[in-house]
């Protein structure tokens, strides 16, 4: 009697895929005394690399402005290669959309903090977050875009 293969979820590699820092109005922005507005955008993507290996990239973009003047723009893409084998197909999506970004987030959070500090600003420390809600929203949006059974095309 043969045993079924055990499910595997493992980190193969974590790396900084891309990093961009712009301080377009330096040095004048360092003379500003007004508190900036800070906009944070987070997104993730996943793709199969080989059989059972997936790349997940978590991208965080931070834009700080005072009125219409940009203080800084930072974009960091934290990548990871994850091994996912012998996992039921319905569980692969949540692993790629929740577990992998949750694994990558502390790394990109530290990168954002360090690079904003090195750019001469108070470090931006991202609040802890999980990706379950984001994943659920994406799934709901995808379901809304799919044609309903019995619906006639336009």
Q: SS-based structural class?
A: alpha+beta
Distance between the termini: 55 Å
CATH class: Alpha Beta
On the 0 to 100 scale, the average pLDDT is: 92
CATH hierarchy: architecture: Roll
Gyration radius (Cα, Å) is 20 Å
CATH topology: Bacterial Protein-export protein SecB
Total domain count: 1
Low-confidence segments? none
What labels would you give this structure?
single chain, alpha+beta, Bacterial Protein-export protein SecB, four-stranded antiparallel sheet, 2 helices, 4 strands
What would you say this structure looks like, in words?
With 154 residues, the protein is of the alpha+beta class. The chain has a single domain, classed as Bacterial Protein-export protein SecB, CATH 3.10.420. The chain is 29% helix and 39% strand. It has helices at 89-118, 132-145; strands at residues 8-22, 37-50, 53-66, 69-85. The chain has a four-stranded antiparallel β-sheet with strand order 1-4-3-2. The protein is elongated and about 65 Å long.
Topology:
Elements: E1 8-22, E2 37-50, E3 53-66, E4 69-85, H1 89-118, H2 132-145
Please summarize what this structure is:
This protein is an alpha+beta fold. The protein contains two helices and four strands.
């Amino acid at each position: 009697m043969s045993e079924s293969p055990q499910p595997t979820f493992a980190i193969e590699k974590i790396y900084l895929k891309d990093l961009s820092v712009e301080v377009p109005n330096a040095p004048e922005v360092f003379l500003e005394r007004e508190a900036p507005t800070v906009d944070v955008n987070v997104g993730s993507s996943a793709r199969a690399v080989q059989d059972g290996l997936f790349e997940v990239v978590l991208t965080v973009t931070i834009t700080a402005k005072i009125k219409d003047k940009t203080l800084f723009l930072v974009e960091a893409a934290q990548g990871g290669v994850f091994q996912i084998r012998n996992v039921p197909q319905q569980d692969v999506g949540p692993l790629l959309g929740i577990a992998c970004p949750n694994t990558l987030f502390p790394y990109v959070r530290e990168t954002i903090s360090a690079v904003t500090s090195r750019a001469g600003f108070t470090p931006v420390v991202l609040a802890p977050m999980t990706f379950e809600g984001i994943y659920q929203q994406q799934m709901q949006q995808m379901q809304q875009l799919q044609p309903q059974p019995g619906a006639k095309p336009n």
